[in-house]
Amino acid sequence: TRIRQALRLNAFIRISQLAAGTCEIITLDRDSTQPKRTIARQTARCACRKGQIAGTTRASPACVDAHIVRSRQWCEMMPCLDDEGCDLLVNRSGWRCAQPGGRVKTTTVSYSAGMSSLTS
């Protein structure tokens, strides 16, 4: 039984560890109850290197330089896809990604109990 327990623990550690500088999406919730609008909330887990913090790059969770988040210069982390333009929201609470066809994705950042949350 000790060998079995050791194998289970080993498997758990391998599954729960992320490579340094990487992120994974843990939860994704979409609400499409409003016409022409989808609200998406996602939670990501990141193993960032020193000087980095969880952020968004090309519409995916990523480790970014911490100064970007502290200064709220969101577009510096390149959160939009390659064909989209990035604009800061007026109060710097998030950013907008504008697609060539006119569709706009707005992302706001909120903090609670030491965690940050992204809502698109």
TrEMBL record:
<dbReference type="InterPro" id="IPR040329">
    <property type="entry name" value="TAFA-5"/>
</dbReference>
<protein>
    <submittedName>
        <fullName>TAFA chemokine like family member 5b</fullName>
    </submittedName>
</protein>
<comment type="similarity">
    <text>Belongs to the TAFA family.</text>
</comment>
<dbReference type="InterPro" id="IPR020350">
    <property type="entry name" value="Chemokine-like_TAFA"/>
</dbReference>
<dbReference type="GO" id="GO:0001664">
    <property type="term" value="F:G protein-coupled receptor binding"/>
</dbReference>
<keyword id="KW-0732">Signal</keyword>
<dbReference type="GO" id="GO:0007186">
    <property type="term" value="P:G protein-coupled receptor signaling pathway"/>
</dbReference>
<dbReference type="GO" id="GO:0048018">
    <property type="term" value="F:receptor ligand activity"/>
</dbReference>
<dbReference type="Pfam" id="PF12020">
    <property type="entry name" value="TAFA"/>
</dbReference>
<dbReference type="GO" id="GO:0005615">
    <property type="term" value="C:extracellular space"/>
</dbReference>
